[in-house]
Specification:
The structure is a homotetramer of 264-residue chains. Chain A has 264 residues and is α+β, with helices and mostly antiparallel strands. Chain A is built from 5 helices and 14 strands. In chain A, helix 4 links the parallel strand 7 and strand 8.
Chain lengths: 264, 264, 264, 264
């Protein structure tokens, strides 16, 4: 399907404020960007670079006054995400070098502390995709989706105790559980068609059967319409924006995803 | 200044034909892409990746029949390119690791064969920018710009003998001469505002005084309005498209660059 | 000074066990490896690769039975580490792209939670090196060095509460405090001449004044004799070995650092 | 088999002379370095980095006077190189991104000019490994191995005309022919056990059937005992040393490869 995604952020800046943005969806194996706009007002100099994960990031210094960032993207994405029941666990020695990184614990995914829990959740599963599907189902059924109640970001261990979280929290828990079983897992941020309430979204991917598969514990079942903005080890790597200096709160954060009437 | 660049390529394909395209201008230190379209008809699957130089490339297989690739980009670029007379030669031991690559000879820049000639052209120059400026002037004054007369690509040594060439040929000769003096130099392809006749363009950059500077031996003097699509060691690295299998000739190659009435 | 470092690890393996090792000190800007041995017994196939930080890593599967890894390296390193009092804070917009990564929170360095504490510790400091020196001194004076009492790795926040830790813990706290002030900081593992008790060691580096400087809160004052094995965001990235499957405990871990009588 | 390779280079330096060396064999998928020495006399500062192909390179400035570089390596390598008759041609659209680079023409491999010749040489071959084997046999039988008669490096096209060359020349011709058929091919430099006369050696690899295979047109038949120092597009990328400034000729270049009496 063809989607048009848009994201508008507005700030009221007091001091010159450095930002690193990650708002440019890239074409890749799973999506094709055919049209894109990226407006910054006022129109300050912007420097773009690729981070260690291949995400396109933009650096700028926002001047005092109203500051607006607006992106809009026409992108073709899958009508349905692939499922891979039966796709086998890949033994460590056979994983590609570039994937090993996603086995390590990270800021919000303390995979070093979830071994027993993951083993229990996946007891009896065929090793690989089916384990990840069991983890996804467990998170979906045991961690309540709840709009953010705290400004302090929580880690997988904290979310597990709390029993509730937002999309990034559920993804973190899924990732931590996978890695504790030596299954590479990574965070994805982006858009999802018909997400309710509409906002930026986060989900995760796990590497089984020789490729990455999509999992989303916040949705009742996996469907299509995902648009990726960035990949990373967890939310620390894929913030839509990192802002430095005295904190600045967005006064507007508006996200839209519309289906385009265009043949595939 | 703000420019809108567009490029349209049309082919008549007989057999399924793999292409690797390099037609996506990237935002970077010297330009900002605010809007972009990339249309492919028919709409086959496309896979995008970054090559070894950081260029965004697109892979696809064109099906038999008419095949069209069309890109359009709104981009902010400099009104004037920086000149750097007096910028010093950087000694090899002080060059950044990532730049060393651009000292080596390459397919179309046999820098190993231009040492004496470069020494002669730059005799008496202060080492660094002024040497490159002397090389640029020498190429401008001694190699006649001439529309392509042969389908076989020529190297710097061949162009030097022939005394004439197209923009990529003049750039190759400039690059080969710089490298023979241990000055890193690289090829750039992209667009130039008010190029006549309008087409895709090629020029070069040299690394002196701790940064890359732009040089263009095809133009009477350096002005602004350059839009970069890709960087590489020479034209072999930055083909707008590489096509594999039986050769396919574009039946249309249409390029436009328009100035947008937009404040900077 | 010239040092000979050696590290011997012995395991008693029950099941075929995948390992990823990071035990190959690399020559770099700050050290020169002139001789190196890397013995693995029994002599199974080993595959070497560079990780995302440029560290050389070795992959292998240890077979059941006794398993030994032994490395020995002759390396030239500095007699004294540079200090840089007065070296200025580099504003975010001026940091190299490759350094930005080291501003982010990571598994064991929850820099998102140390802003107030770091501001207090560094109150009145000139921005940059002097802030990091104040952090190093604070950690040295307030966190007791204490041999490991728990198998569970602790994070900077946990160590700060506990008031005691091993070298990696003190480094994590230093890193978290630096990053919370927007100063890039990274973990280093390796050897230190005359460390007591002798073992592998961990310290940190901070990026101020346009380069990386060494800090070590476990030592009463900074001296020379450091040999780097690997760099990373924190201990999760630079484990000397990651082992997968049922846990395997080393039955021997023997480390030596000897000064070689060789002119510099 | 276990080999001990050594290489000694001696220069008589007049002016301070920057060098970039590539003399550190790396452990990798096909060899394991268990012991290594790298001596530089006098003992100037050396900076090591990885180039764009992953080769470890060393930068230094040689001071006036006698200058010596000596490396010695104990390395385990294959007794026999794999052959892969029947391994299929990989279609462009299925090649890994990182391999595409090796399809392009390069300084000494003008693959853009060998299409007809390669088609003729491989007429009737099953597409893939068998084509490369036919190319290897053709070069072996038609280009006479001849010690270097000229200081000026020759390209594949020049060697083909001349009908004679050294090992790097034969490899270049093999590579150019492969690439003209859209088979990725790369240059390898290193050591070969029982090469006669003993020296550094060059051969090539081609990517068919989903992996790299070794080919060596200078040897009557493929055997084991290869030790890789570096990979690149051609000799321009994998010079054992690049020296800058007024040319400096090695007064000694001594290479040895000895079999070690060690069980595999």
């Amino acid at each position: 399907m063809w989607l048009q995604t848009s994201c508008e952020l507005k700030f009221d800046i007091t001091f010159p404020t450095p930002f690193i943005l990650m708002l440019r969806a890239r074409s890749g194996a799973q999506q094709w960007v055919s049209r894109e706009e990226y407006r910054i007002e006022p129109n300050v100099p912007v420097f773009e670079f690729s981070d260690a994960y291949g995400n396109l990031c933009q650096r700028l210094v926002a001047p005092p006054g109203p500051f607006c960032i607006a992106t809009r993207t026409d992108v073709k994405t899958s009508d349905e995400m692939d499922r891979g029941f039966g796709a086998p666990f890949i033994e460590i020695q056979n994983l590609p070098d570039a994937v090993l990184h996603y086995l390590l614990p990270s800021r919000f995914c303390e995979s070093d502390r979830f071994g027993d829990m993951a083993t229990e959740i996946t007891a009896g599963c065929y090793l690989g995709y089916d384990q990840v599907a069991a983890i996804e189902a467990w998170v979906r059924n045991n961690i309540r989706y709840e709009p953010a109640t705290s400004a302090v970001p929580a880690s997988a261990a904290e979310i597990n105790q709390r029993g509730a979280g937002v999309c990034r929290d559920l993804a973190h828990l899924g990732i931590a559980l996978c890695r504790s079983l030596s299954i590479p897992a990574r965070m994805v941020v982006g858009y999802l068609h018909e997400l309710y309430p509409m906002d930026l979204h986060a989900w995760f991917e796990a590497y089984v059967g020789g490729r990455w598969y999509t999992f989303d514990p916040t949705q009742p079942e996996l469907r299509g319409g995902y648009v990726t903005i960035g990949y990373g080890r967890d939310a620390a790597d894929v913030a839509i924006y990192n802002q430095f200096g005295p904190p600045v709160i967005p006064i507007v954060q508006h996200v839209e995803v519309q289906r385009l009437a265009r043949p595939d």
